[in-house]
């Protein structure tokens, strides 16, 4: 492997002190961290991070607070291998990609419930409305993870775990205000009383934001955004080894957006509901753990344009119902089996009404699918510090029949502070309901298939005060589904709506093969009050469709080079100062690579003052040098922003 000249230079600097690493360094064999004490739940059972073969980032609440981010997207962008594109400011369509995979190839989970939206074109979760909120831990598990998480987990998994009370009564709040009339307020209260553990939380976020269309394309008006969210959780210990768990999350957001070429008064309403009910039972002195659960998610999306006689321009609804059983059995102190069964039913409805009141609203496109899966994974520790695992999964789709997938991996942690990781995984993604049944649908689509592997090395030195690591990964996806505009369609017959002679603008087809490979490197240094950390990602994600006009082209909106760095210093007076830098290399906005997105560098400043044992005052400047840049062609991004607030934990 030969890195470009500037990429290899940056990597060599990264792996030598002074290092620049990410805020996740504490979780990724970071300086000063006890990695054996860090548990990863994205593996579906709490596992010490030094026993996880795949690359994983774990951000705890202290790291989340230090970052001061309001949106989950901004927090995730600090981790290796993660890129983002957004059609404007807060609340506009946001796509997150892991290691160059498609946005719809990442599974998003909150407290064990998958959030991906079946009514979205690619089935992805729109990160636009996911705020940091009451998150206690955020995990990013990179690489194919379909063995444990099923369809869609080709790029990886983002797992959000909300706070759980540990005392009789506890709470937290965050209030801040800043540029563009931005105000965010969040509060949560919970406690433990006898067999009952409970927590309630709410958040309100409002901003005038920026023009969705970039000022370079005559965007002038501010497109505002507001989000109101609430959540609750109750756990009841029915016996010493049996517990019931109920939790729910609801958010309602309103986003103003623009036409693709000009300002407009259009806006969107988005409502999300997540509900879960579960029962856990630990048997044989805790060696045999069982969980039975029911999860329900529903996403309602409506777009409006007040300029039209019929204001509503779009109406969509997506629902998921999921029944699952998961068991884990400690066969011995060194052998553990994880197994489970799942049944998932997805439904969607979508319609785009005409602007004329004289034109009847057409019948909505509808579709549903059912997927039943069984999985098993065996984890063995034959030697001290060595963990090996292997897994298999079989899914039966009501349209595509059975698919069987395999995975294997290992991690070896040596007394020298060295950790060696390697893993292989397979994945698949069934066509989304929108790709099958919408006005652009194609019911002859086949599932996407993928396989990938990675190998990495981590090293801790000087009593854990310095740590560094790097990993190489590769992934191949076949039968990838893409949208074909009828202006250049290879199959004109598919340019008619199914069963009609009505022309349509395009359709979905299995025509693509994609390949991705690259390097992720990270390092961290802790010298008392001084901390320095950072990460660098080199990701080559290309179209490898034989005979295609785009063969060898970069996949859209995926920069090949990304880096994050931060430095912090804690003054004796209780004042913590920090700076962070994010660099993104060039990318292309379209499949033909004719529209180039320029590279950019963003610098942030942060400060936090310990006003008391439970109170913090904080402030930050984002995009200090007011850099103009784009993550999606024509769409604006925030300039310099200043925020200040107060945080309490009690």
Automatic annotation (TrEMBL):
State the Gene Ontology BP annotations: cobalamin transport; monoatomic ion transport
Question: Would you tell me the Gene Ontology cellular component terms?
Answer: cell outer membrane
Q: Which domain of life is it from?
A: Bacteria
Signal sequence span is 1-21
* A Pfam match: Plug
Q: Domain TonB-dependent receptor plug, which positions?
A: 49-157
This protein's UniProt keywords: Cell outer membrane, Ion transport, Membrane, Signal, TonB box, Transmembrane, Transmembrane beta strand, Transport
Q: Which Gene3D superfamilies match?
A: TonB-dependent receptor, beta-barrel domain (2.40.170.20), TonB-dependent receptor, plug domain (2.170.130.10)
The way this protein sits in the membrane is described as: Multi-pass membrane protein
Chief location bin: membrane
In this chain the TonB-dependent receptor-like beta-barrel domain maps to 234-624
Q: Where in the cell is it found?
A: Cell outer membrane
Name the CDD domains for this protein: ligand_gated_channel
What is the similarity comment for this entry? Belongs to the TonB-dependent receptor family.
Q: Which PANTHER family match?
A: COLICIN I RECEPTOR-RELATED (PTHR30069:SF53), TONB-DEPENDENT OUTER MEMBRANE RECEPTOR (PTHR30069)
Task: Tell me what this protein is called.
Answer: Vitamin B12 transporter
Organism for this UniProt entry = Sphingobium jiangsuense
